[in-house]
What we know:
420 residues; alpha/beta; 2 domains
Amino acid sequence: MNRPDNSSIAVTGMGMVTSLGQGIAANWAAMLAGQSGAALVRRFATDGLRTRFAATVESICDPTLRPTDRTEHLAMLAMTEALAQSGHAAGPRFPGKLIVGVPPVQMEWPDRIDMASRCDDGDINDRALIRAAADQQMRPLFAKLRFGKTAEHLARHLRPLGMPVTISTACSSGASAIQIGVETIRRGDADAAIVIGADASVSPEMLLRFGLLSALSRRNETPETASRPFDKTRDGFVPGEGAAALVLERGTVAAQRGANILGYIRGVGERLDAYHRVRQRPDAGPVGEAMAAAIRDAGLEPDDIDYVSAHGTSTGDNDRVESLGLHHVFGQRTNKLPVSSIKSMIGHTMSAAGAIEAVASLLMMQHQTLLPTINFDTPDPDAPLDVVPNTARAAKAHHVLSNSFGFGGQNVCIVLSDTP
């Protein structure tokens, strides 16, 4: 069943930047060819780290920028491309909301050491932070680290309706931004929204932190083969950087202004999994429920879904649980349903992943071509799926389910369609 036009959410503009390049065209070509953006990290020393590679954005981003500033730069690039495609100029006021998914703001070690040197006992406690905040010499640092600054800076260029919204739900942040944009338009709060997911937080501390969790691949000799979702030999995820933006509009409004409609956000589903800080519930209950909720919200049945853009991080537990959740929802049809993960090519872009994968899903519907899961050599009996191994595949795709599962248990799934 189709939604009435007035409640349909059309996508009229898209922008993307990843380790594979800047812009929709460059990224589509690279993904279609099954290229990997993973490589040894060059912009900082990795001596002593167990994982010394990532899928970073290098040539178009100043390597000396802080992670928060790099994230903002990538978000601006994606937003500018999406606005241009949608026909909304960057100068006049954007007739909708701005919603941005970003990583949590954290101080890097040089900043912590600097702050500790200003504390009497070298201890960075709450009182020390308050004193530093009032210190004129430290105020520029706090301005850079302030949560929400990315959305505030983007809003100066965009001039959206109302205050910009910042959200950080770990690996589902980009999908959460899309969800909030959809709900904003459905409620009638606005006729449009630009939703962004951005993350450029690869740093020594980030590699160390996830390394201590045993979450990262250690294939330092062959980084390009390290991200291998659903492969039995997977040994962890590859950190990635990137950003994606989508311009969402009420379907009738987009049609009235003659916009080129690229596809529709047909349904969204969200379920909380409070099982563990970084692990999903082993029975895949909340994961499956989020998928089913998105399909119901789209007014569809599981049999209507033609393809699944998997969360597919290349970690042991995540891929197994996602596979189990898919079997809960799609039953015996699961083994024949194409399910691939573009993280095999661009790594896990964390807060940007949901938005990047939504853009990739729309591109796959436009081109009627499914992107592959590269580096797939050994099927895993615990994750029996058709992962579109290693090579892109021509296929009919009218309704796509895109999965995003965040650390902390925030699960967000989106159904994208070529019809309202």
